[in-house]
Specification:
Number of domains: 2
CATH class of the largest domain: Alpha Beta
CATH superfamily of the largest domain: Pseudouridine synthase I, catalytic domain, C-terminal subdomain
CATH topology of the largest domain: Alpha-Beta Plaits
Number of helices: 5
Order of helices and strands: EEEHEEHEEEHEEEHHE
């Protein structure tokens, strides 16, 4: 039987969501997947040692070190019935305080957390203020004033189906470079700038590189049309820097 649940996490204490291997052995860096699988095994085995049969989880997508999630989706297979309320309560009690799960349910065997997804929503937030404040937390601070109306014009050039090679970092094995952006909206809330962006899929570091390109345009007072030239160039060197991951959150994943 296949089960699916949602997970929420603060990513700063983990080396990304996905377990990492080196020379066939799991690396010792803590990961979201590693903590969740360990908690599930402990629950399903009644807290007694290690299951002979391993539990393998599949995430809707990989998030990097420092990236957060409110709506990450995970599936796993298990051959017995699970009481959802018991699972959610006990697994959450086992997990570290910066990871939680919710909404366990059965799904058809052909459901796949990653491959069945049709839409993903990310949010990136940063502080736009010259001086720091004690409660800025881990958010990036941009000291020069940015114009969200200009930034919105820049983002509009990215909407639709395009080859996003200019915004793709080199650390991915997936050769596909075409994505569909359904929406990209930016606004200011006090000193905080909030970007909400939705698409069918995203390339490695794509959102963070889009933000870096927006800041390149604002910081050098370039015209919003520069974003179009970066997109059409299909050349990573034309885009801005990949900004740090703090402030990026996977908000929701949608399925048919």
């Amino acid at each position: 039987m296949r089960y699916v649940f949602s997970t929420q996490y603060v990513g700063k204490n983990y080396a990304g969501s996905q377990i990492q291997f080196e020379n066939g052995k799991e690396r010792e860096f803590p990961t979201i997947q590693g903590e969740i699988e360990k908690a599930i095994r402990t629950f399903l085995n009644g807290g007694k040692g290690h299951l002979h049969r391993d539990i393998k989880t599949v995430f809707s997508g990989r998030t990097d070190r420092g990236v957060n999630a409110l709506g990450q989706v995970v599936h796993f297979d298990y051959d017995k019935d699970i009481v959802a309320s018991d699972f959610i309560y006990h697994v959450n009690e086992i997990l570290p305080d910066d990871i939680s799960i919710s909404d366990l349910r059965k799904v058809p065997d052909d459901f796949h957390a990653q491959k069945s997804a049709i839409r993903r929503w990310y949010r990136f937030e940063f502080i736009n203020r010259r001086y720091k404040q004690a409660f800025d937390g881990d958010l990036m601070r941009v000291k020069y004033e940015v114009n969200t109306e200009r930034m919105q014009k820049s983002l509009n050039y990215l909407l639709g189906e395009h080859d996003f090679s200019s915004f793709k970092s080199s650390g991915t094995l997936n050769p596909s470079k075409v994505c569909i952006l359904y929406s990209a909206d930016i606004r200011k809330d006090g000193d905080k700038v909030i970007l909400d962006i939705e698409g069918n899929r995203f390339l490695y570091n794509m959102v963070r590189t889009i933000v870096g390109t927006l800041l390149k345009i604002e910081g050098h007072n370039l015209e919003p049309e520069y974003m179009k030239s970066v997109l059409e160039a299909k050349d990573r060197r034309k885009a801005g820097q990949t900004v740090r991951p703090e402030g990026l959150t996977l908000m929701r994943v949608e399925y048919p």
